[in-house]
Request: fold
Amino acid sequence: MTHPKPRVGAPIGALPLKVAGEDRVITLGTARDRWTMLFVYRGRHCPRCKRFLAKLNKALPAWQEHMDVVVTSADTQDKALADKAEFGWAFDLCHGLTLDQMRDLGLYVSEPLSEAETDAIFAEPGAFAIRPDGTLMLVDISNGPAARPDLDELLDGMIFNITNDRPVRGTA
Reply:
């Protein structure tokens, strides 16, 4: 199966994500009432992810004024719930991102360096702004844990894009 990179301005296709600790699935890429920002993190094993998500959690009310925020990883539900309990994250935390979903999003995928790191493949970080009609507005992906978007700048830019109904850029 081939997995083309997601194209900004195009529908991302239905992306069902299981919410940790709830009997609920969030399906992105279909019509929704609001914009959605999807953040993909590496998983429980990643301390840089924890710092990034702590910043996101602190800024969450400002984000939620303008869009829904969904965070996911390939982690099991148990690992996701352990993180949620340990760090008190208030955003929708999903789990079980599959290899096909990682590929469909155009994410870089890594194998653990050792069993001490983690026990399964995982996605490297990504951020995706999705319009209410399910089309992709913005993509930011990294091949490693050190490169992350600045959350203040990203939110400011997204507010500008939403408020001014800006067109998708970088389509060529």
